[in-house]
Amino acid sequence: MSNVATSPAIELCGLTRIFAAGSDVVRALDDVTFSVAPGECVALLGVNGAGKTTLTKVLSTLLLPTSGKARIAGFDVVEQPREVRARLAAVFGGERGLYSMLTARENLEYFGMLAGVGRRDLRLRVPELLAEVGLDDAADRRVEGYSKGMKQRLHIAAGLVGDPEVLLLDEPTVGLDPTEADRLRGKIAQLVDGGMTVLLTSHYLLDVERLAARVLLIDHGRLTHDMSLRAFAAVAGYEAAVIVSVGEGAADVVVRRAREVGGIVVAKIDGTDGDGNDHVTLLVERWQPELLVVLGQALTAVPVLDIQVRAAGLEEAFAVLTKGQSV
Amino acid sequence: MNGAETGIRRPGRGDRPEIEVRRRRANAWFAFWTAGRMQFRLGLRHSMTYAAGVLNSLMFLSILVLSRREPLDPGSTTAILTGTALAAFWASSVWGGVAILRRERWMGVFGRSITGVQDPLVLLTGKLLGASVLNLAVVVASLAVGCLIFGLRPAFGSPLGALLGFATVVLSGAAASLLVGALLVVSRHGVAISNAIGVPISLLGGTLLPLTFLPEPVTWLSRLISLSWLQDFLHTATAGPIDWTPLGCALALSLAYAAIGVFVFRRMVDRARRDATLDLF
Ligand SMILES: Nc1ncnc2c1ncn2[C@@H]1O[C@H](COP(=O)(O)OP(=O)(O)O)[C@@H](O)[C@H]1O
Ligand SMILES: [Mg+2]
Questions:
Q1: What is the mean pLDDT of residues B149-170?
Q2: What Rg do the C-alpha atoms of chain A give, in angstroms?
Q3: How far apart are the C-alpha atoms of B264 and B251, rounded to whole Å?
Q4: Please, what are the domains in chain A?
Q5: What is the value of ipTM here, to two decimals?
Q6: Strand, helix or coil for residue B177
Q7: Residues at Cβ < 5 Å from ligand 2 ion
Q8: Which of A25, A188, B45, B247 has its CA 20 to 30 A from that of A44?
Q9: Atom nearest to A51 CA in ligand 1
Q10: Angle between helices A251-260 and A290-298 (to 10 degrees)
């Protein structure tokens, strides 16, 4: 169909989804408009409750939008769900969404059938996928005994079994140890290289940094930013991040004093951690060592435990864009 | 046939080659078969299958056999066995639909069924039939063991009639479980309702007590339950002369269950997608 070649892989137009829970009305998605070209890998970022999962659910035809339009490869998610389902896979991950009493192989065979893969293709595809995600040794064990990471890998395999044109990944690296997460990122990068369109939702900026060329920021259901990865990283033009650790409750003083120093912006205040310490992230427009001296003077008499300096990255950009809400 | 797979082109990126992907299509038979086999497998691994099937049938059988003083003739033996098989099967099957849907919801796999390429109703029907076949097999096997224990020798007047009867029992059990399952999963009060109607339905279906124990004014109600007709039919099929009317009534009722079940299920899925009533993931 010419439809497929010429349409964006993902296209949203004024997409709105409202949840009514009793008297509470939540606008989980509020007039969201963007489009993703075939073969693009786009990251969707937002704090908890921003509406990322809801967006993924609407695109995968699991939820109906309240208003607005969404299309996958030119097919409307409300009017043509069959066409959409034949082209898209969504991976939600987590502990659920798998038949725990079945083995990985049985799960994949079943999900492959759901995705419309024929019997003969499944016979080839399932062992191949199990090996690709590193589950071939555990393929005939019941999923109930799997670790979080293994379940996550099975989720990914289930998403890929139908060889989708568009892949939606909702926090794919959650619960994975760093090695596994890295391995998964490698796998996704490979898919993107192969021409698959990927919409990646993540808390982990490392995923974004490695995979996406473009970043969408969503806040309270509204699309607030749509920019290239480079623009996102350089969003505030800050060169360095200074993380000041202080004793419990001293964060306010640091914030007040830091504001008196020129060229510094308070990006993020992390609440008391397990050790009972507060961490304040300050962003520095132009880094020079003298600044530490100035800052040191400003912080006299404040119980500073530690100061770290590093190049500003996505984490800081995200903090600035979400106005200090913690990631 | 694994569905018509039309190769379509995925646009390549830059200088990368285009990659062939397949357009995926629904294939009702494959979906039905795979779902049925999957549920059968799951059932084999669930202890509930055996707890309900084995315990119920042996309990019903021993109550009926041990309460008799005089030795049983082959005719009454067969009547007792078919009655017991039906009662035990019905008990495990009717609630099977609720259990399957609830478990799928709870495990978070229900969402996959309704966002796949295959028709969710075909999948569910396959699962219900898969579960029904397994339930009946467990019941029949337990009763065979029961026969050995009690030294019973059944005789079938019309083996073909009995076979048809049991096939209808499986279909009817799947239809009833579709209806009950769809109705209860829709409702916010599903658990409360299933607890409330559990005993009345078992009474009316003749699975707790023989139907002759029911008071006159409610016997007509039991006629709304296909199992009561199937009891009648199997009785004539084993004792002869065979009467096809009850079989027809059972089939008609089962069709009605299935039709209402399909309607309710489709509405339930629509509502879930609109109102997010099922916490799908
Ligand atoms: N089924 C639901 N019923 C009511 N509110 C919901 C439902 N699902 C999500 N929400 C609300 O919608 C908002 C967005 O949620 P979600 O899309 O899960 O956010 P994210 O994935 O970005 O963390 C939240 O405020 C959440 O509480
Ligand atoms: Mg989420």
A1: 83
A2: 22
A3: 20
A4: 10-234 (3.40.50.300), 240-311 (3.30.70.260)
A5: 0.83
A6: helix
A7: A 53
A8: A25
A9: 17
A10: 130
